[in-house]
Specification:
The chain contains nine helices and four strands; from the N terminus they run H-H-E-H-E-E-H-E-H-H-H-H-H. It is α+β, with helices and mostly antiparallel strands and 301 residues long. It has two domains: 214 residues, Multidrug efflux transporter AcrB transmembrane domain (Multidrug efflux transporter AcrB transmembrane fold), CATH 1.20.1640; 73 residues, 2-Layer Sandwich (Alpha-Beta Plaits), CATH 3.30.70. Strands 2-3-1-4 form a four-stranded antiparallel beta sheet. It is elongated and about 80 Å long.
């Protein structure tokens, strides 16, 4: 079977890479992320109306007499509503419910409150966890490929892996930003855990391809580096796609039938895994060849 010339179309892959990254960064700059109360501190009240849900404006008007700061208020489905606000105690929580009960039949699904200092600490720790994961992955790849220095130095494998991971993280965060802007999706602890899973999955896919490149470099010493990379991509493509598809099938099942709690956790995994598969096949490996060609041109000058 004839091999597909992956490297031949590198410029197309890079163009898509730049467009997607640009859109994601634009979204993050102008829309930002909608952090959950786990990271910002505050209160979150989830209400289920026993009949048809009222409008957000109606609920705001009913609660305006109470001494309570409403940060965000939005509907979920046909009969549920989420109220996010400032500091609240159980007494004020009951006043809110009583006030709403005067006009609507409802029940409270959940009530949460976290102080702002706890939220800030948790957000800092989450950001640190992502940073440590990125550094550890880079060091591991540089160590794993330490014996492969021809024709691309081992540390370059680590740097390119970080570029691929940067793509996956930015795309995932950009998607979260858009979801937060248009669907009120908040960044919660499970979603941060999902991002860490995406990092691990993506680097696993990249290492499979890089490892095959390493094996072929040691096996075929006189073959051109570009041909080695292209051959390695063709050899690992089936395995990569099979791994991705078998992972996506249960995630789509969770997304559609797993309930609201797991819906966006599974969605961020779906987006991240697809982005990770793309970056491993169409960004990481072609970048090795591009960097090699650039080094060769510099040496000839």
């Amino acid at each position: 079977m004839k091999e597909f010339p992956f490297i031949k179309y590198s410029s197309i892959y890079y163009f898509i890479f730049i467009i997607v990254i640009g859109v994601s960064i634009f979204s993050l700059i102008f829309f930002g992320l909608k952090w959950g109360i786990e990271f910002t501190g505050g209160s979150k009240i989830e209400i289920e109306f026993l009949e048809k849900s009222p409008s957000v404006e109606e609920v705001r008007k009913i609660l305006e007499d109470l001494n309570f700061e409403i940060v965000n208020l939005y509907s979920v489905g046909e009969k549920e509503m989420v109220l996010i606000g400032g500091e609240i105690n159980e007494e004020l929580n009951q006043k809110i419910l009583s006030k709403l009960n005067e006009s609507f039949a409802l029940q409270q699904k959940s009530f949460q409150y976290l102080g702002p200092s706890v939220g800030r600490e948790l957000r800092n720790k989450s950001q640190l966890a992502v940073l440590v994961a990125l550094i550890a992955i880079n060091l591991y790849i540089a160590f794993a490929f330490r014996k492969v220095s021809r024709p691309v130095h081992s540390w370059k494998y680590g740097v390119i892996s970080l570029i691929a991971l940067f793509h996956d993280v930015i795309v995932s965060l950009g998607a979260l930003s858009l979801l937060g802007r248009f669907y009120n999706v908040e960044v919660t602890v499970p979603i941060i855990a999902g991002l860490l899973v995406v990092l691990g999955f993506s680097v696993h896919d990249t290492i499979i391809i890089f490892d095959r490149i390493r094996e072929n470099l040691l096996r075929y010493e006189k073959v051109e580096f570009e041909d080695i990379v292209n051959q390695s991509l063709n050899q690992t493509l089936g395995r990569s796609l099979t791994t991705v598809l078998t992972t996506l099938f249960p995630l789509f099942t969770i997304y559609f039938w797993g309930g609201e709690t797991l819906k966006y956790f599974s969605l961020i995994l779906i987006i991240g895994i697809i982005a990770g598969s793309y970056s491993s096949i169409f960004i990481a490996a072609p970048l090795l060849v591009t960097w090699y060609r650039f080094s060769q041109q510099r040496q000839k000058r």
